Amino acid sequence: MNSRILIVDDRPKNIQILANHLTNDGYDVEYATSGKEAIKILEKEDFDLILLDVMMPGIDGFETCKRIKKLENKSNIPIIFVTAKTDIDSITLGFEYGGVDYISKPFKADELLVRVKTHIELKKAKDMLNYHKSYLEKREDFYNKEINKLKKALLEKNKQFESICNHYSEILNLYNQAISKIQIQTSIPLSLLKAEQINEKQTALLLELEKAIKNNAKDIDLLNQYHDILSLREKALKLKDVFVAKVIADAINLNSNKINLLQLNINTNINNETTIKADTEYIKAAFASLLGFIIENSDKAETINIDVTKSDDEIAISIIKSHKQFEKELILYPHKIIIENKKQNFNLFLSSFIFEIHNFKFKIGNNNEGGAYIRVNISK
C-alpha cells in the first residue's frame, strides 16, 4: 500500500507541481486549498505526511499546524512546511508549532523527495515502536491480571486449607475426648467383672459403663462420618436434577420421631416440579441435618414453615421458626463443629459445609419479632 500525503496550499499551480513529483515517486496524494479544509479532511482520513504552505488566507500554515496537532490520533503525522518564508523567525516558529522540517520555495525535486521519504520512514518506524510498546503493555496488563487471579485463587485455597485444618483439629480433639471418656469409664477393676456375685450398685455401674461405651462408640462413628464429609472438597460431586420437594419430605421423615416428640407443626409450600442441581446423597444429608438442627433448637409445639420460591435467577429455600431464637454463637459460628461455649454443633456444620461445596448461599439468623430463620439460595 502506497504512503498517503496531504498537500495544503492555496495555489493550485503549487499543488499540481508537488503532486506530479510525488505521484511519479509512487505516493498517493490528496490536497486542500485552505487550513480549514485540511482539518476537515484530517478529521475523517489518515495520512503518512503533510506538506503545508505557511502563507494562506484565513488561518495560516502555523495555526493550521497547531490545530492539526490537537486532533485525535493525528499528532504523530509529520508536517513539512513548504514556503517562500525563509527568515529565521519563521523557521523557528514552524518547529515550535510542531513541524518536522522546512523546505524553501522554489525547491529542488530530488531534495523534496529525499526529505519526504526520510520523514515517512521515520513515522513508520515510530508507529512500529508504538505498536510494539502498546502490544507489550497490553500483554503486561494481561499477565498482571492473570497473576492477580492466581494470587486470589491461591489465597482462597489457603483459606480453605486453613478451614479444613481447623476442622481436623476439632475432630482430633473430639476423638481425644471420646477416648479419654472410654479410658476413664473402663478403669473399673476387672475383678468386678469376674466376680461370681455382684450387688445391685455394682450391676448399675456396669450398665452405665456399657451405655457409656456404646455412646462413645456412636460419637466415634459420627466423627468418622464427618471426616468423610471433609474430604468432599477433593471429590467430584455427582450433580444431577434433584426434586426439592422429595429432599424436604425425606428430611421430615428422617426426623419424624423428634418432630412428634416435640409436637412440632411442619408446614411446607413447595412446587413438586422444582429441581436443583446437586449430589443426591449429600444434599439429602444436608437437609436432614439442617432440619435436625432446627428441631434441636425448637420449643415444644412450635411451628416450622418451609417455603421454596423460584425466580429467573435463583431458587430460594426458607425455613422459618415461629418462636424460639437461635443462640448467638450458633449464628456467629455456623461452620464450626464446636462453638465457643463448647456446645457441639454437628448438624449445622454438616449442612452448611455441604451447601458451601455446592456453591449454595447459606444464611442463618433471628427475626426481630421472635423466632428464627435459615435461608438457602441456589443460583440457576
Task: Write up what this structure looks like.
- With 380 residues, the chain is of the alpha/beta class.
- It folds into 3 domains: 4-107, Response regulator (Rossmann fold); 153-233; 236-379, Heat Shock Protein 90 (2-Layer Sandwich), CATH 3.30.565.
- It is built from 12 helices and 12 strands.
- It has helices at residues 12-24, 35-44, 61-70, 88-96, 109-185, 190-194, 200-230, 244-254, 256-261, 280-296, 328-332, 346-357, and strands spanning 4-8, 28-32, 49-52, 79-83, 101-104, 239-243, 265-269, 275-279, 303-310, 314-321, 361-366, 372-379.
What topology does this entry show?
Elements (H helix, E strand, L loop, with lengths): L3 E5 L3 H13 L3 E5 L2 H10 L4 E4 L8 H10 L8 E5 L4 H9 L4 E4 L4 H77 L4 H5 L5 H31 L8 E5 H11 L1 H6 L3 E5 L5 E5 H17 L6 E8 L3 E8 L6 H5 L13 H12 L3 E6 L5 E8 L1
Parallel strand pairs: 1-2, 1-3, 3-4, 4-5, 7-9
Antiparallel strand pairs: 6-8, 9-10, 10-12, 11-12
Helix pairs in contact: 2-3, 5-7, 8-10, 10-12
List keywords for this structure.
Rossmann fold, 5-stranded parallel sheet, alpha/beta, 5-stranded mixed sheet, 12 helices
